[in-house]
Prior knowledge:
Layout: E1 4-13, E2 17-27, E3 32-36, H1 43-51, E4 58-63, E5 66-67, E6 78-82, H2 93-103, H3 108-121, H4 137-150, E7 155-159, H5 167-184, E8 187-191, H6 195-201, E9 204-209, E10 212-217, H7 219-224, H8 229-234, E11 238-247, E12 252-257, E13 260-265, E14 274-280, E15 284-287, E16 296-307, E17 310-317, E18 322-328, E19 340-345, E20 350-354, H9 360-363
Parallel strand pairs: 3-8, 3-9, 6-7, 7-8
Antiparallel strand pairs: 1-2, 1-4, 4-5, 9-10, 11-12, 11-14, 12-13, 14-20, 15-19, 16-17, 16-19, 17-18
Helix pairs in contact: 2-3, 2-4, 3-4
The protein binds adenosine-5'-diphosphate and magnesium ion.
Amino acid sequence: MTEIQFKHVTKIFGKKVEAVKDLSFIIEDGEYVSLIGPSGCGKTTTLRLLAGTVLPTRGKIFFDNEEVEKLPIQKRNLGFVFQHFAIFPHMNVWENIAYGPTVKGKRKSEIEELVEHSLSSVQMKKRAESFPSELSAPELQKVSLARVIAAEAKILLLDEPLGALDQKIREEFQFFLRDFVKKQGLTAIHVTHDQAEALSISDKVIVLNKGQLIQMGTPEDLIFSPTNLFTSFFVGESDFIEGYILDDSTRFSKVRVGLESVYVQNAGISKGERVVIAIRREFFDVKKPNKNNENFLTGKIISDKFLGLFRRVKVLLKNQQIIEAKIHAKSPIKFKENETVHVIIDPSRTRCFEFPKEGIQKSLEM
Ligand code: ADP
Ligand code: MG
């Protein structure tokens, strides 16, 4: 139940490690936001800035328009859940949950009420007497969440909270966690290296790279409307095709790719400019040449691998660029190596960006 705002926050460790650079964003009251980005991009530092265990070198952080530095730690109403369970092994579930309110000096009746409420919020009432050693990994994480509720936290900070769970259980727990956060009206910030998790659990996702905010948006925004090459590259799987704008006068821009041309989403880039077309591997199709095919580039099959529900079809385009489609495997029939094919592009499913001055490779550096 708190709005969080970062205003131009920079954190420099030592003399020159810029872990977070000029970070600005707003997380609305009750929102579930994930932070994703390559290792070392500043996710944990951002979380620690929120927790108050590191202070900004420059810039300010606000909780509900109050500057955090001026708020005493106990008034920040923070709860934490990490990959490693922060549960006391010698106390049973009930005692673990009662620990926070007890330390705060709450009255016995109030503590009992808080613990009962917290236990039911995670559906663990029946396990009140159990010891941590008797609980499964998801149950231990539920105890961590119950402790957050008993401590009357309003902001929940999660750093790889599902990292210790098996894949199948992890997916189930994602739904539980989101539902829990929403029912309790918490504002949640969740750090994960697993982008599928971030996309399925969050209201919004922040993509960080080298300490900078690259894009903040809904999961749909990141998949369907990436605003830059890095997001296209890092979130999901995209391929890039280089070209030059031939015509920018209609809803779709015509782009020259080698000796061919295709229509792509008009990005307001002028005629003659060098561009990069970004297209998700799931969003294009590879077909045998046919006069009815529209908006395609010609290529030759490098490989066609069957991966159960998907096929990965690698194609060498005429302009010598390689792209790889991820196509639903509707039948076991495969393309043959060297076969000529049409790579069919749906213009509304493409994004077109100005060619980065530093080159594509450099702009994707992590
Ligand atoms: P992430 O969680 O995204 O992997 P971190 O926030 O942990 O990234 O780290 C960001 C950068 O800051 C890294 O280059 C890391 O080495 C550096 N860093 C983090 N904490 C410290 C610290 N206490 N002292 C010095 N450098 C640090
Ligand atoms: Mg980290």
